[in-house]
Structure prediction request, 411 residues.
Amino acid sequence: METNELKKEINDYVEKENEKLWKLAIELYDNPELYLREYKTSEILSTFLENEGFTVERGVGTLETAFIASYSKVKGSKPRIDILAELDAIDMGERFPENERVQHACGHNIISTTATGAGTAIKYIMDKYNLQGEIRVVGTPAEEQVGGKIIMLENGVFDDTDASMVLHPTSGTSKIAGRCKSSMSFEVTYNGFAAHIGNHREKGINAQDAGVIFYTSIAALRYQTKDEIQMFVKFTDVGKEEGIIPSKCKMLVAVKCFNPLLLDGLAPKIRNCAEGAALATGCTVEIEEKRGYKGRIYNHTFEKYLRKNFEMLGEPLKEGMVDDNGGEDFGDVMRKIPGIMPYPTLIPEKRVSLHTKEYLEHVISPRAKYVVGLGSKVMAYTTLDLLLDPSIIEEAKVEMAKELQKEKEGE
Ligand SMILES: [Zn+2]
Prediction:
């Protein structure tokens, strides 16, 4: 069989299954759950895949809601390709009434439905034509908080995986994701000494002054960094007492850049700024450093196939691999296992921010139904390319190593 004929069969299979998949997307939309509490979501998806003939393992990588649904026609055969299904919804905050605050305003219902659609379609072909390899649909919790994929990666879930992909819906023109940003943050707390501002100001140690000095030090430091580095600093708490010299001041610094190695060089400088301000004012300082997700890297080897498959399905795409300033936990995965990320659009006519009320309406629109089919097909096509020619994966692994080396050199 020619590859294109097999793709035609995938296309027909997804067309036939699309109503069922769309019902799944709606069911997930109707049951939004926050990070690490995606119990219903995990159950709905894993049961669906079990009913489709996948072998399901629940509670993997130390996460209760994570699951692996795997299928291979020829037991133990390679390559192993993982399609990731993100499970969590987000808290919309005060913008929504109390009982409607948790919503799928990032479209993870579409992510997990397309992963399921692609998985079942490729299983159908593997089964029918005795294809070598293993396909796994992996339920990955807590993308919005914590970073479930990173925990699963650290706990060995992806140890024997050869290639991975995850889809994310977007707005504007469809695209293939390029790099996104690595991040770290610092919570800095200054402790001074409270004193009356009129009668005893000489006894006070002003923690807010330390905060101001820290703020300006960061502003100065910002000018001495590479263009790709974004640094944001803000006061988060200076107390509310009136007539008293502030004895406590809390600050937050958030740093983002493409190359995570740049963060290693920047962290001690930020600490110096924090400690310098403490010294200048006589305050004590507590510094809490947190490392966030690592950014995605390019994989043009996979891009080439994914682009060709999008074109085959008639979907217009932006040129190249498109960088963005966001961050997500797939970046850590694709630094260990070569990966790729399709971003089909839910709103072709304009750009709409994720996590907003407006975007939420589009994750359940007629176009979303189309994207469920499109996303399932494009990921199944690309998986098929890799199963039929595993040398593509070897090439992608080499490219991944080169990209990581480039980061080392650009440090
Ligand atoms: Zn998302």
